[in-house]
Specification:
The chain is of the alpha/beta class and 314 residues long. The chain is built from nine helices and twelve strands.
């Protein structure tokens, strides 16, 4: 192993630079970091001198990152994540490992799998700290590869070999209707009854498989849906439906989000389905993460009639 050496810059300077890059302003960054602006400017000058580069293009009335600045800004989130993990691991060493779990939660299995798994973990890790991230499936994969989260529950299977995935369940996609809709009294609704409706759908790049299946279901019923908006945040989607803007799809396990007089209904002929996965990096070393994975797999096996046959954890 090469001997370690000192660097002429420190973590505080890197954090200051990252916040300036994020905020796009020395003034706003100084306010966020609770530091005087002249002191913040000195930190950046010291960092630039230590690296031997310019990080910002300081043109009048504008602040832009240089090529080197953009490169540094892109790499710092992963470094800060590793520093946070290091802190957690050292603090939790006496208890057998870190007690911080970072989860990418897609929402479909929050109540049925994630929440009960976390309740189990709290018996062994009473000081468990939890961070949750909401993203698209592809966003979760990138977060995992860049070590920003420990595991995720996406609706797509990763394509590369760097990540391990388990298919947890296959869930029905239903329909959310606004208050007073002509079909609100029906528990099941056929696609052909929705010919003249305005639709709010998730964007295709969020889940191409599901999007194409929904469009295909409409085509089989003899129409092309009138998509007036595309949104990923389901509570916001339900709020739009409550305002009477249109109808929307929603996975069955999230039917509790229906508020403001909206109603949830089963879609039939055909019934679109959503696949749910548990994904994490290869060879997890954290005892906490291993226990969480095992608990999730066990809970998913017992979850509903739609849960598929799952592999045993190992």
């Amino acid at each position: 192993m090469k001997p370690f050496c000192y660097h002429s810059f420190d973590l505080r300077q890197l954090v200051s630079f990252a916040e300036i890059a994020r905020a796009g302003s020395f003034r706003q960054a100084a306010k966020t970091l609770h530091i005087a602006q002249p002191a913040l400017s000195r930190q950046i000058k010291q960092l630039e001198a230590a690296l031997g580069i310019c990080l910002f293009d300081r043109a009048p009335r504008r602040l832009h990152l240089t090529i080197e600045g953009r490169e540094l800004a892109a790499r710092l989130p992963a470094l800060f994540s590793q520093v946070e993990q290091l802190t957690d691991a050292v603090r939790g060493a006496n208890a057998g490992g870190t007690s911080h779990l970072r989860i990418g939660d897609g929402g479909a299995l929050t109540t049925e799998v994630i929440a009960p798994a976390l309740r189990r973990l709290r018996h062994e890790w009473p000081n468990l700290r939890l961070s949750t991230v909401h993203n698209t499936s592809e966003g979760f994969f990138q977060d995992l590869l860049e070590n920003r989260i420990d595991c995720a529950f996406p609706a797509l299977e990763p394509k590369g070999s760097e990540l391990i995935s388990h298919k947890l369940s296959r869930l029905e996609i239903g329909l959310v209707l606004p208050p007073g809709h002509r079909l609100a009294g029906r528990s099941e609704i056929r696609f052909e009854q929705l010919r003249n409706e305005r639709w709010i759908l998730p964007p295709r790049d969020a889940n191409p498989v599901l999007y194409d299946e929904l469009i295909s279901c409409c085509h089989k019923a003899g129409f092309t849906p009138d998509v007036i908006a595309e949104m990923t945040q389901r509570p916001r989607v339900v709020a739009q439906v409550a305002c009477g803007i249109g109808i929307a799809t929603l996975v069955k396990t999230m039917a509790h989000l229906c508020i403001g007089g909206t109603t949830f209904h089963r879609l039939i002929r055909p019934t679109p389905m959503l696949d749910c996965y548990l994904v994490y990096r290869k060879n997890p070393s954290s005892p906490l993460l291993k226990c969480f994975i095992s608990a999730c797999l066990e809970l998913a096996r017992n979850f509903g009639k739609e849960t598929i046959k799952l592999p045993k954890p190992g």
